[in-house]
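Q: Got a minute? One more chain.
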Amino acid sequence: MATDESATVRRTVLHVLADGSPRERESEVVAAMERLCQDGEAGIRRQARKVMARYRRGSTINVL
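A: Always. Here it is, folded:
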């Protein structure tokens, strides 16, 4: 779903991934978030990059 044609769907996926993803799925969530960092919509890219920046500084993905 992170690659859906609809920006609305991708935006929803971003929110769901960043707000309540189970820890045991972390590698899959990070992979999806990295795909969203390359999204065609600037707003989705920006939010995904913010989430990943926090994650790389030692936080969890669940930051929204």
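A: The CA atoms of residues 2 and 13 lie 6 Å apart.
Q: Perfect, thanks.
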